[in-house]
Amino acid sequence: MFRSICTAVITALCVGFSGHLDPASAQDRRVPSSPAELRLSYAPIVQRVQPAVVNVYAAKVVQNRNPLLDDPIFRRFFGVPGQQQEQVQRSLGSGVIIDASGLVVTNVHVIEGADQVKVSLSDKREFEAEIVLKDPRSDLAVLRLKDTKEKFPALEFTNSDELMVGDVVMAIGNPFGVGQTVTHGIISALARTQVGITDYQFFIQTDAAINPGNSGGALVDMTGKLAGINTAIYSRSGGSQGIGFAIPANMVRVVVASAKSGGKAVKRPWLGAKLQAVTPEIAESLGLRSPTGALVASVVPNGPAAKAGLKSSDLITGIDGQTVDDPNAFDYRFATRPLGGTAQIDVQRGGKPAKLTVGLETAPDAGRNELVITARSPFQGAKVSTITPAVADELHLDADTEGVVITELGDDSPAANVGFQKGDIILAVNNQKIGKTGDLEKAAGASQRLWRITLVRGGQQINVTLGG
């Protein structure tokens, strides 16, 4: 295959070549007019940006248990103490200093579960870092360098909504741990919404080489400003194949603002409506030329959408003058709007255009009552929450969902081992309805030989019986 393609290209070139250059082609070529043109380089931008890109080292202590220790005969004959050996797992990624005081942005997956985080600067100095904020929904985390009062070089944000396909960008990070590395390419696509990495599916795609270890590093434009945080690659080999994804700077800006304000969680606007994608069949039924936009499936009573007049079957086509191609695009656009103001939403209703003004406010979160189940039971080690509108929004549940949901599972916990998953909604335990976390805590504390559990997973109700 490779040979036949090359032969075809050579033949085409030979047919088109007649001993002299085509006049149009000759006009496009010229000799450099000065020594300066021979020295065109990205070096000035790199020199300005590199000091603000750091390496992030995360360490996690895990228990390395020998399964033979569970055998009492083995312990009796060989005198092995029933202790677990500790092992340190290390991960390596990149980060970006975004504030001169020492605030660093990286990916959550770089520092997830870490007991210790260190940041190494481009001048080889190392600092301990504390985790200020983690936002799993965007896969962004903010760190602060400890025990330092100096001013650090920091990157400014560009407006990522102004980026265009074809813009030249550079990726800077620490791929494979070889040391700080710069690669360059172009923006290959914008608003990639079918990547499946985070809750907010809206990524910058680039062909700048990104490899393992680049996660959390900088994608910068030709002004030296931060265009995005490199987060993932599409690869069949584990290495770069020219398809990398970065979280846009405008989303990074929102997370950093929450960290600077002292928040432990990112506060975002809540629409109060469930959206669905427009399929070709739906588009045909609505008389649309193409299946684009976000269709309103349901509206929460008294929520911002309802107050604005949004109704089921409305088709959202834009927000604040920006086109909305699908629900993921709307979620990103809406989530990056500042709280306290309003957003103008373009809709199609009955084939006619309309504009609605939606207030930008957070989802009600009173009564979440999160807790970790500690009683010996199938739920031991599970972090659970009563479902509030905020919880439903975070986990993409219907706003009218009731019950208690598992929001987190401890590593190697009984709850994880029996098969519970994040997002499982517990409706009943031993025929007792579970309406709030206190109900589940009480049910888990009862001594039982059998546990009859009713839960909902992925919209499907499941009945499970477990031994005590």
UniProtKB/TrEMBL annotation:
Example GO biological process: proteolysis
A Gene Ontology molecular function term of the record: serine-type endopeptidase activity
PROSITE patterns: PDZ
Annotated signal peptide: none
SMART domains for the chain: PDZ (SM00228)
Alphabetized Pfam families for the sequence: PDZ_2, Trypsin_2
UniProt keywords, alphabetically: Hydrolase, Protease, Repeat, Serine protease, Signal
PDZ domain segment(s): 253-351, 403-434
Active site as annotated: H109 (charge relay system), D139 (charge relay system), S215 (charge relay system)
InterPro entries in alphabetical order: PDZ (IPR001478), PDZ_sf (IPR036034), Pept_S1C_Do (IPR011782), Peptidase_S1_PA (IPR009003), Peptidase_S1C (IPR001940)
Binding site for substrate: H109, D139, G213, N214, S215
NCBIfam families: degP_htrA_DO
Similarity comment: family membership: Belongs to the peptidase S1C family.
Name of this protein: DegQ family serine endoprotease
